[in-house]
Specification:
alpha/beta, Ribosomal Protein L15, Chain: K, domain 2, five-stranded parallel β-sheet, 5 strands, 17% helix, 19% strand, elongated, Large ribosomal subunit protein uL15/eL18 domain-containing protein, ribosomal protein, Ribosomal_uL15/eL18, RNA binding
């Protein structure tokens, strides 16, 4: 368990996405997760849409506007050395705004009916010039 945490600690900030409070509450409401501690290698951000917050035990790198029982990873290793009774959570991996700009250009035709190997003779080659 802590090898996974160590691997995530070495990750860059883009690969340690923040987790919102509402998503954490939704994950901790799942069956079999009551009385367990949420473990997040990253930031937990406040969510103004959440009216009532569950009583939670949380271990995270950084928590904005803290409240409830919160542990650091040092305290967690002393508390439960094997990581028993914990649930490892993470934010959405592709939640960053930059992922909206990836992929084909908005005006490009996206046809599924035609195969891949048509109109390949001469003309403009795939390697020559700009092609959407």
């Amino acid at each position: 368990m802590f090898l996974v945490v160590l691997k995530r600690l070495f990750m860059s900030r883009t690969n340690r996405p923040p987790l919102s409070l509402s998503r954490m509450i939704r994950n901790m409401k799942l069956p079999g997760r009551e009385n367990k501690m949420a473990m997040v290698v990253g930031t937990i951000t406040d969510d103004v849409r959440v009216q009532e917050v569950l009583k939670l035990k949380v271990c995270a790198l950084r928590i904005l506007r803290a409240g409830g029982k919160i542990l650091t990873f040092d305290q967690l290793t002393l508390d439960s050395p094997k990581g028993c009774g914990t649930v490892l959570l993470s934010g959405p991996g592709k939640g960053r705004e930059v992922y909206r700009h990836f992929g084909k250009a908005p005006g490009t035709v996206h046809i599924r009916s035609k195969g891949r190997k048509f109109e390949r003779a001469r003309g403009r080659q795939a390697s020559q010039g700009y092609k959407n």
